[in-house]
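User: HTH-type transcriptional regulator HdfR. Structure?
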Amino acid sequence: MVVNDNALNQMPNNALAFFASVLAPTGIEAVIEPIDNAFNSSDWTPVNDNAIVRVNTYLSVPSPAGAVMDIKQLKFLIALEQTRHFGQAAARCHITQPTLSMRLRNLEDELDLVLVTRGQRFEGFTEAGERVLAWARTLLAAHDGLFAEAAACRGQLVGNLRMGLVPLSSFNPVSYIQGLSHRFPELKFSLSSLSSDQIIESLGNNQLDLGVCYLDHVNPNYFEFFEIGETRVGLLYDTRHFHFDGNEMSWEDAAELPLGMISNGMHYRKSIDLSFRSRGLNPQPILESDSTYQLLQAIHEGFCCSIMPLDSGLEEPIEHLAFIDLPDASVLAPLGLVMRKTEPRSAIAEKCFAEARLLFPPKN
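Assistant: Predicted structure:
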């Protein structure tokens, strides 16, 4: 990274430190100059009114041929990991499938490694490919984080907030991101439905910025977090297919119903199973799914009822759907918002985490 002396004097105190900490381990080349030195303004990103940064779109990666790697090739590799399909990865990157295949082979040639196991279709990644993927995620996160930090120095929040959420909880993500979108209109959002363990792992690998999960296994040495409330539950059903008297149902009566449940292994499911077992009950669900959408479809068709979280947005008036309370019904572990402690940590993550603290003040 090259910093012009005049630009150095005009930069915010924390900006240069951030750029240096992020760029040093990645090989991304950057030049910081006074704004008067920009020959083509489209090539530069303002840091403030006086200083600008230009970040090359190439990474200097050692290889037998001394090649220079295009960062887009890493984006193509990540897209293939996410879709597990050459055609879908190409469509996501807005290129043709032959172009994607050619660029990935170029990457393999530059690294002198086979990264992808190919047959008539995508079969997976080699062991070397998995190791390169880990570095690719780190490099792309640093690249995106640098531009987000530059925008933050200008008082803007620009980029993509990557959030992981447990599939069933009392947290309504839409109301949260709507508030962020109103305050920061250039901010985009990616939501992933994951288990608590997957969220913690993805935060640690810098694949997520924030996570909403249960806090019983979150290590405070590595993560910042705060509680956003307990998850209360009730029985969700379609009034065209089921009718119940009163405002509350016993767990014994609920166990006799055709139930749809989130798949085994999720923290929410473990808590529901424990609520039944503590009363000597062992209901056998008629449907299990890792998709909340599929459960809602089954409820809407009258195939089953389901024990769902309250205060999640599902209790809002939806035609034919209704909740009935269950006694002493809550998930045991508190729900919380989690962010990694260690650098690099994006300006987007820090700002959105701080905004959430204002929405969920600590309880006395």
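The mean pLDDT is 80. The chain is about 40% helix and 25% strand.
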